[in-house]
Amino acid sequence: MPRKEKPQPERDEEPQEPLFTDKRRVDPETGDVRPEAAAAASDELSEDDMALLQEAERDLVAEYRDRAARAEAELQNFRTRVERDRQANRETVIAEVIRSLLPVMDDLDRAEAHGDLAGTPLELVAQKLRSSFERYDIKSVGEVGETFNPAVHEAVVRLPEAGATGETVADVIEGGYTIGERLIRPAKVAVKVPADN
Known about the structure:
This protein is α+β, with helices and mostly antiparallel strands. It contains three helices and six strands; from the N terminus they run αααββββββ.
């Protein structure tokens, strides 16, 4: 029995490409609303609906602008807090380092008070240490004759004196130091106070 051959497609025919219809409202190349989409939308919506839609769009734009302004203000506040914290941390670290050097400074001050530094290499060391303190805005507190201030002075001894009108520093036992507005160590002082009659 002879075999039947299947019909072969003609090779001369080119396959047809599918036909696509672009129904997007926004033109992908220009980003504009296509005229036919705008016309269709205006046909579908009444004037009242269009006014409501435009008002809603304006409200949405205003809301996003408000959100953006708030976010920008929050960012600025955050930057300010970070800078303030960075400065405070810097002062804290410097204060800790200075606190560790204060016993050395106290020894040098006592040696200088006894005349043991004059003409020795330690005199130069003391000068360099004091200039380093000044570079970081470290100031000494507690001088004889100044008014007693419990915020920067620690009264170790109270000396009643006839004729004294207020509490004044009579002697500095151990110097105090500040960095900027921060107290590193209060000055230990002897205080003259009015004598009771």
